[in-house]
Every structure is written in structure tokens, then in C-alpha cells.
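Q: Protein A?
A:
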Amino acid sequence: MQIIPVLDLLGSQVVRGVAGRRDQYRPLESRLVAGSDPLTVATAIRGAFGLCHVYVADLDAILSRPSNRSILRELSVNGFSLLVDAGIRHCAEADPIFDLGVDRVVAGLETLQSPKELAHLIERHGSGRILFSLDLRNGRPIASSSAWPMAEPFEIARLAIEAGCRQLIVLDIAGVGTGGGVSTLTLCKQIRQAFPGVTLFTGGGVRDARDLQTLVHAGIDGALVASALHDGSITPSDLAMLPMPTIPVAQANSDSTTSAFVTGESVSESSRPS
């Protein structure tokens, strides 16, 4: 399993996300590091856990404010492999994000305009570089437009996979930062059973090593984690007990018939989304 640390950026700082109530987010307080500077926080996580793959949610961009592109470039230059949700709405908006040195772009249900845009993204950049985030709040889809049917979350996952998605994040923002446990487990199991070849991540509410083991047993490939790393609920020794990931990831060219393998750090790194 891959453990992917999360950096939520708002106002050029790392903030502590709680239940998706973004107007209440405050600068991060962590046992690992003083302050909320993004590079300092990421470096502290890497030093403590050996995790080099980082999921970045650029909340400013998602909220249609000026983005944190200089921070993304700085993280990339300093050796971090980034999965970035910058609130893209259309296919063309991914290009400048990749230009910053970002490895994978997250297309979120919350902002992406349609399944057609997702198909265009994957056609342009390849299924190995685009992840679809099935964004939920209390189990209900958060869709950006009527082009996404307000159907059951599983049906939206099916639409994304039919559009060519091979990497999927199931994220319930109502669980973020609450320590309430992983509410997406049942849905993830359903997706895993129906689509065994899809690389599947989840996030929101991960409390401790027991939650991670539950996800491992459910066949989930990776977990997005923030608060539990910063408050000490998950330790380096906990991550060392997880199975090392060997995950096939489609190469950047969408017409490629081969696969690249990412062997990630369990204690030494969260090679996934991610």
C-alpha cells in the first residue's frame, strides 16, 4: 500500500482541513515541524517518514483564486513527486500544471466540467498521468455541472473508467481531518470488485494503522493521509508494517500497450496516489 501525504494549500500556507469547511481552515500545527510553509512541511514529512510522493490540493485554485504555482514548482525542484488537484475545469488547464514539473494531475468531480473533458485529458496526457477524483460530501457526489449525472457514486466511477481513467481517488471531504474513520470503504470495495485493474486510492478520515490495514485487506492501493501523520497517530514503524506496493501504472502515452511499475516507499515513501 502507498501512503500519500496530503498538503492542502490555502493562502500559500499548508492548512489543516476539517470536514471540507474551507472557510474554517487554519494554518497547520504539527508535531513534525514548526510553521506551515509548504516546502518546510513536505521536507519534514520526507525526513520523518521517507515519503516523497505528495498529494497537493491547491485550494486557492479550486476556489478560483490565484493559484500556488510557484509553490508547486518549488516542491518539484526539491525532489517531490507531485499529484496535484488545482481545480481544473477543462483539458487545456492541465498543460501549465505539468509545465511546473508536476508528475500527475488530478481531475476532480468538484470542478471538472464533464466526462468528455476527462476523456480529452486522458487522450492528451495518457492514463498514467491523469487521476480522477470522485469527490463526495457525506457520501454524495460533489459535481461541477449537470454534465455529470447526479447518480450514485459508483455510476460516476463507472463513467470515469469508461472515459479511460485507470487511476481513481475516492475522497469524502466530510471525513477530512475528523479522525472519524474511512467512510468510503464500502464504495471502494464495490469499485474494486467491479474494476480489479484500476489503481484505487481513498482518503478522508484515516485515523491510525488499523485503518490502513483495513484498506490493505480491502484491496485498496493507496491512502491519502494528513492529520494522522502530523498528530502522531501514524508512525514510521506503522508504515513499515504495510506491504510494499508494486503497482502497474499505464505509461503516459494513452495508446501504449505496456506498463511501467512504480515500487513505492511504504515507510520510505508513498509512491502513490496517488
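Q: Protein B?
A:
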Amino acid sequence: MSGSTPTRVHDQKPVAVRDLDPLTKIQGAFIWLLKNVFGELEYGKLRWDKDERTTEIVIGADRLRTSGLGQRPGLVIRPGTTQTANLSMDQKVTVDSQTGNREHLDLDSTTIICMCVSKNPVEARRIAWITRSAVRQYRRTLQREGGMHQISEPIRVEGLSDPSGYLLGSKDQEWVGIPVYVPVFFADQWSSIVIDTPQLKEIEQKLNISTFEERVLATPRDARPPSSQGKPVKTIVSFNL
């Protein structure tokens, strides 16, 4: 593989719709890149092709159908657990002095799992190594296309494992999997909206008035007024509006 951006044999760039959650966008960027990388290989050496009849490897998201794989290997891309870094107190960026609304920004981390599936352990390991090398070589391209802050190290290649959770259909015992774990970081931005202050004041007024009325109604009519040394004391009733 050369050091330049891979040829876009997949034609379409990763989906960049704002409504998508960031994990779907990142997952799409990984699939896009790996299809391009495997699409540059020669036939007979795990070449990916848009034509399902001629492709030598199946690349997809989350889970693959064993009926679509046949005897061919597969590469499944799936995001793992995501968590917030909680970098600062309240993650506050800006505050609107008029409305009190706030903009927040934090850094989230997740792991993209690239499960390399095959009936041949050597072949699965080769797919894993190509995947790892491609992610490292085209890291900046991936970060740009997937909207990621950083693709971090170390990128781990695990040993043989059971890939049944990544396959749909009959679970052939011959399938083996080698996962590649890629840690990534991406920015998470959101807004917190404050209820209008005049509206809160109106609610507070109603609550105070209701409380005062309940106290007046609860006072017995024949109750003796407060006095000091036998003389009535003028009572001033006040409540906060």
C-alpha cells in the first residue's frame, strides 16, 4: 500500500449526515477505508469488489450473514463501549447572559472492533494485519472522514476467538475470528436550556399566594389575636412575591 489516500473504489464517501450518531459516522468511515484498501489488492489475495459474486472478502457493519459469506472470509466493523472523559467541571464552553442557556463540550472515547472472520486461522490473521496496517497508515484520513478527534494507540490484535456474535445464520464451528481493537476519541457537544426566568417567577408567586391563603383559611375564626402585657399587638402580614 502506498502512503497516499487510497483509491476510492467504493465511489461513495462515508455518510456525513448530521442526524446520525457519531458512532455510525465513525463506523462508516472505517468500512469505507477498508473497502478501498482491500479493493487495491490483486485478485487471489483477498481483493474486495463491489460485485458480491466476485469479491473475495465480505466487509460490513455489526454482523454478517453466513449465507452471504459462503466459504469466503469476512470483516465486521462494530463500535464498542463508549464513555465520556469528563474533562472539566460541567464541561461548559459558553453561557448566554440573557437566556442562561449553556453550550457544553466534552471528549468521548470508544473502541472500534474489526472482527476478522475466516475458516482459516492464517487467513484471519492476515486480514487482521492488513486492517491494523491500513488504520495506522491512513489514520489522518480516517480522522477527517469520520469526524474523530484522534485515533489512538495501541491498536491491539488479539488471538483467536469465537466470532459467533458477529455472524447471522448457521453457526459453523469452523469459523474463527481475530479481533482488532482501535481506540478512538471524538468530540461531543450539546446544549442545556434554562426555563425562562419570568415564567419561574410567575410560578413562584402562585405558590407563595396559595401557601398564604391556606394559612389564612386554616386559622380558627375565634382565635384570640396576639397580645403583649394584655394589649393587642398590630399584626403585619408579609410574604415574598
